[in-house]
Write a structure and sequence with these properties.
Layout (H helix, E strand, L loop, with lengths): L15 E3 L5 E3 L3 H20 L4 H21 L6 H6 L5 H15 L9 E2 L4 H26 L5 H21 L7 E2 L7
Antiparallel strand pairs: 1-2, 3-4
């Protein structure tokens, strides 16, 4: 259980922060960048929830909770076996749930014949913003995995599915794609 009694600690005043194992790293460390981008995606999802219909809001609430799990996962470096067993890690079931939800929403959508521009509704616009931030988080997590061994492969899968989920959910809240804004190649030449 998390218990915060003080918000500021002054521990980061010199540009460092602590990981969950207590190790101090710079605030621009690849691990911090990865879980920071996950936090940004979570904030964008919070904006989307302000405009979401109830069925989408329930999905987004689960995603936000998962993103805190993902942040905890990414902020915990690989280490001793006991610590690894106790670490909060993204599980295959979380990735599988995203896939089921994507498939369920996608069944109602007509196939795309153009790329979609972010827009249509406020909720969809914020979901597209969250999607692009999730893609950045994925790129940063992939970089982290390349630089440091032991990054949970399920965390990488989760990030990959997350952006797909947000894309399909944006189409769903745009009246199942009826109010999507389509790209018109070369329209302004």
């Amino acid at each position: 259980m998390v218990k915060l009694t003080r918000i500021y600690t002054r521990g980061g005043d010199l540009g460092e922060t602590s990981l969950t194992d207590g190790r101090r790293v710079t605030k621009d460390d690849p691990r911090v960048a990865a879980y920071g981008a996950v936090d940004e995606a979570n904030a964008a999802i919070g904006l989307a929830r302000l405009h979401a219909p109830s069925d989408a809001d329930a999905l987004l609430a689960r995603l936000q909770n998962d993103l805190f799990d993902l942040g905890a996962d990414l902020s915990t470096p690989a280490g001793e076996a006991k610590r690894q067993r106790e670490a909060l890690r993204i599980a295959p079931a979380q990735v599988e749930r995203l896939e089921r939800e994507i498939d369920g929403m996608n069944e109602r959508l007509k196939p795309l014949d153009s790329f979609i521009l972010p827009g249509g509704s406020a909720c969809a616009s914020y979901l597209h913003l969250a999607r692009t931030i999730a893609r950045r988080a994925e790129r940063l997590a992939v970089r982290l995995a390349r630089l440091e061994p032991g990054v949970n492969p399920e965390a990488l899968k989760y990030l990959n599915r997350l952006s797909d989920h947000l894309f399909v959910l944006a189409r769903h809240v745009n009246d199942d794609g009826a109010t999507d804004v389509l790209w018109k190649p070369g329209a302004n030449r």
